[in-house]
Amino acid sequence: MSTANVHSLDQSPPVAAGTPGVADSRWLPDSSFDDAWHRIVLPGDTKERLARQAAATMLLRRDIPQSALPLHGIVLLAGLPGTGKTTVARGLASRVAASIANSRVAYIEIDPHELTSSSLGRSQRAVDELFNSTIMPVAEQHVTVVLLDEVETLATDRAGLSRDANPIDVHRATDAALTNLDRLAATCADVLIVATTNFDDAVDDAFISRADVVHRFPLPDTNARRAILEDTITAIDQQYPGAAKSLQDRRFDEVVAAGEGLDGRTLRKAVAAAAAMHPALNFDALTIDHLIAAITEAREFRQ
Ligand SMILES: Nc1ncnc2c1ncn2[C@@H]1O[C@H](COP(=O)(O)OP(=O)(O)O)[C@@H](O)[C@H]1O
Ligand SMILES: [Mg+2]
Asked: Are the beta carbons of 268 and 232 closer than 8 angstroms?
């Protein structure tokens, strides 16, 4: 094989782009995942604790027989939309890769919507196919992190839905997902599955009981809101110097207070909405009045 070929092989992701059911695949650690993780504000040492728990799960699964310690290698992150779950899931993947592996780690992000959107009767096959042909071959060769984003789509709570509302196909797809997860856990010791869900009530109990770590994401409290708003405004200030003057305004506390009940994504977007209120789009002239107006508007939209 020529050097050029070796080089191009090295560049290719663990799973080829465009593979059905796969939203993203790359090698870890990944600096863009790390950067996004650093911007997430959670209470106390939550992020570090999650990273330790995920790494411990992988190490213990490697060293202790499953009969003694029934770990599945699954971390479940639950919480309202916009509370940072997907960002933390990707960051966790990258952190764990950096801390426990001495070679690069494969990352596969599943798109469950794509799997279940196939026509009736195809979901179960799509799930089997995804595990057998896409995930397993990678997981047999590399330490692998799989992100099952919005897992409620795949592991729908069978008990909570009537037979009418819940076509047999959904049951089969859920069964297929659970069976395949069990098999993946049993055959590949070096796999970590990070799942996220916006509605943990909708996730199958059998899936929740398989999770080794379940973490619920809160809405940002006062300190977190302040940090998120400051981070967003500071990022704008780096491109449009002057925007961060709003942080020195004594009414900035009012902005923070007005954001009560809003998630992190909505808070960041409200800053953009405030910047867009300047008649000439002078983002460097971001005002406290516009920030308060944008956040109040975002809250009214919520109610
Ligand atoms: N607690 C938080 N701290 C800082 N930023 C946050 C927080 N929660 C959400 N965000 C921001 O909101 C956006 C959406 O986050 P995401 O991880 O996709 O949320 P989820 O998956 O829970 O819907 C990201 O830009 C993220 O940085
Ligand atoms: Mg998400």
From this structure: yes
- pLDDT > 90 in the chain, percent: 65
How do 22-28 and 213-217 pair as beta strands?
Answer: unpaired
Q: Give per-residue pLDDT as tens, 197-222.
A: 998 777 778 888 889 999 999 999 99
For residue 8, name the pLDDT band (cuts at 50, 70, 90).
very low
pTM of the model: 0.91
Neighbours of 238 (CB within 10 A): 9
CB of 220 closer than 6 angstroms to any ligand 1 atom: yes
Ligand 1, atom 6: closest residue by C-alpha: 264
Q: If you take atom 17 of ligand 1, which residue's CA is the nearest one?
A: 84
What Å distances lie between residue 221 and 156, 247, 266, CA to CA?
30, 18, 14
Domains detected in the chain: 3-217 (3.40.50.300), 222-302 (no CATH)
Q: Answer for the pair 217, 78: CB distance below 8 angstroms, yes or no.
A: yes
H helix or E strand, kind and range, residue 88: helix 85-100
Nearest bound ligand to the CA of residue 87: 1
Answer yes or no: is the C-beta of 259 below 6 A from any ligand 1 atom. Answer: no
What lies within 8 Å, CB to CB, of 303 at 6+ separation is none
Contact 73, 212 (CB under 8 A): yes
